[in-house]
Specification:
Its EC number is 1.5.1.54. By secondary structure, the chain is of the alpha/beta class. Helix content is 41%, strand content 13%. Strand 5, helix 5 and strand 6 form a beta-alpha-beta unit. The structure holds flavin-adenine dinucleotide (FAD).
Length: 306
């Protein structure tokens, strides 16, 4: 597998980013902020905040990224979608976020307004897809731009070729990296990455890693996103229905094992879906030998090295 490194400002063996969603209620805000503070001690390359559908949904994302910019040293990226918005409205959002100090975006089309699985039609006066949004961002500012990638194909794509063609359009328009949908089968990812490289796409493709907070909820969500939950993942949670600590250990082990295996395959950057929870994420980092306030990676525990 081709190397997928990005230049990093430290000498850590792996780099990682944390994805959050914007809290909408005061109690959620407090718990999200505790997670931000706990995870910021691990010096991520950047953190990102997701975005809802439609120009009017910018408020929670804006509030979250503004707080991150104003109150932390974290490099902060805002996700941005084009659903239900004119191109003028999207451009206004970009400028507003830029003026708040945002220099990084995760540029997305977004899910259909009717929900995943329903037909998507672009807003008649809007950007047609994520590739068009990347071009718009390039016109407005000198932003660092991430885009999505789907190792198991986006549910709307007829096949992998069409899917990779869309990724190529996003890269050709100026995307700096792709962050993938979560997946669990590293062979599937490796196969996908080889096809991506064969298509002439050279930007880093950063694996999206989902530590499993709740296997039942995860399976429902994965089915809607077109992500497969292999039997080997399911089996790790067998017999643990009433054992929350056991589920926690299994989830942390699984995510750490996945990262270590991807590292062995030449990957060095990872995007973690934190679900705004720090405890499980920290358990994963701990298993990888990554300590808070320390850029050195230590040896991984023996049981995860094999
Ligand atoms: C890292 C990451 C972060 C995300 N963050 C958010 C977020 O913050 N907010 C949010 O709402 N969603 C988010 N999503 C989900 C994403 O918005 C959905 O998957 C959405 O359906 C597609 O958006 P996209 O930018 O990936 O689309 P695109 O890159 O434009 O398309 C994705 C794939 O779908 C296919 N496709 C698109 N449209 C069609 C069509 N009309 N017919 C056939 N095939 C088509 C393309 O071939 C392409 O491969 C995220 C996904 C990822 C992987």
């Amino acid at each position: 597998m081709s190397a997928n490194n990005e230049a990093r400002g430290n000498d850590r063996a792996i780099g990682f980013s944390f994805e959050f969603f914007p809290p909408k209620k005061p109690e959620a805000e407090a718990s999200w902020w505790r997670s931000v503070q706990a995870l910021s001690a691990y010096s991520p390359e950047f953190v990102s905040v997701t975005y809802g559908a439609g120009a009017t949904s910018q408020a929670p994302t804006y509030a979250a990224v503004k707080r991150l910019v104003d109150e932390t040293d974290l490099v902060t990226a805002s996700h941005l979608t084009v659903v239900k918005a004119t191109s003028g409205e999207v451009d206004d959002v970009i400028r507003r976020f830029r003026d708040a100090g945002i220099r990084r975006f995760v540029a997305l089309r977004g899910d259909p307004p009717g929900g995943i699985g329903t037909a998507y039609s672009p807003h008649p006066g809007g950007y047609s897809n994520a590739a068009a949004l990347v071009s718009a961002l390039k016109t407005i500012g000198d932003f660092d731009i991430s885009v999505s990638a789907y190792p198991e194909k986006h549910p709307e794509s007829a096949d992998r070729t069409g899917d990779i063609a869309m990724l190529k359009a996003k890269a050709d328009n100026g995307a700096d990296r792709a962050l993938t949908q979560f997946f669990f089968d590293n062979d599937v990812f490796e196969d996908y990455l080889n096809d991506v490289r064969r298509a002439g796409i050279t930007i880093p493709v950063v694996p999206g890693i989902m530590p499993i907070q709740n296997i039942k909820q995860l399976k429902n969500f994965a089915a809607r996103c077109g992500a497969n939950v292999p039997a080997f993942v399911d089996s790790r949670f067998e017999g643990l229905d009433d054992d929350l600590p056991g589920q926690f250990e299994a989830a942390a082990d699984l995510a750490a094992e996945q990262v270590l295996d991807l590292q062995r395959r030449g990957l060095s950057d990872f995007h973690f879906y934190t679900m705004n929870r720090s405890k499980l994420q920290i358990a994963v980092l701990d298993r990888l030998g990554i300590m808070p306030d320390d850029t050195q990676i230590g040896a991984a525990p023996e049981r995860l090295r094999a």
